Amino acid sequence: MTRQPEFSATSSLTQKTIAVIALVFGTLTLFSGGNVLFGPDAAQAWAGDYVGFVVWFNFGAGAIYVLAAIGLWLGKSWAIGLSALIAVGTAAVALGFAFVVLRGTLFEMRTVGALALRFGFWTIATGIAYHGRRRG
User: Fold this and answer.
1) pLDDT for the residue numbered 6
2) How many whole angstroms separate alpha carbon 112 and alpha carbon 98?
């Protein structure tokens, strides 16, 4: 008995495209976050006024991005929930970031854009995966 894919064939190309973007995004996130956290002083200097918990979250999330990318590529239904969890986690970190910034913590403006990009991407990825699932 052959197993049916968990996503419809019509969504396959879109699903694979999102998966590739997620994989690249995850790999770059791991590299950049790891460089700031564990790399040379020059990498930390380049990062400027970074907010520690945001960098730690993004570094950890990078590994989860890679896992989600694999699930999306394979058309696994659990990838929908994982993508949603990433989006919700990113939103929570963005709220925490806003809180500390409003209390006077120094920050880099690019962090605002990066959080918005991450939240937007994973929200869209979740929607695409959800609407592309095979309806049984």
Assistant:
1) 60
2) 9
Q: Does residue 4 lie in a domain region?
A: no
Rg (CA), the chain: 17
- Give the domain range for residue 47: 12-132
Residue 3 inside a domain? The answer is no
**pLDDT score for 136:** 42
Number of folded domains that form the chain:
1
Token reading at 38 = 């564990």
The sign of the dihedral angle between the CA atoms of 124, 130, 17, 37 is positive
Number of C-beta neighbours around residue 33 at 10 A: 23
6, part of any domain: no
Phi, psi of 4 (to 5 degrees): -75, 145
Judge whether 30 lies within some domain.
yes
Q: What is the pTM of this model?
A: 0.87
Distance in angstroms (rounded) separating the CA atoms of residues 97 and 23: 25
| Cβ 22 vs Cβ 72: under 8 Å | yes
pLDDT digits (tens, 9 = 90+) for 13-43: 888 999 999 999 999 999 999 999 999 999 8
Pick from 107, 117, 119: which is nearest to 47 by CA?
A: 107
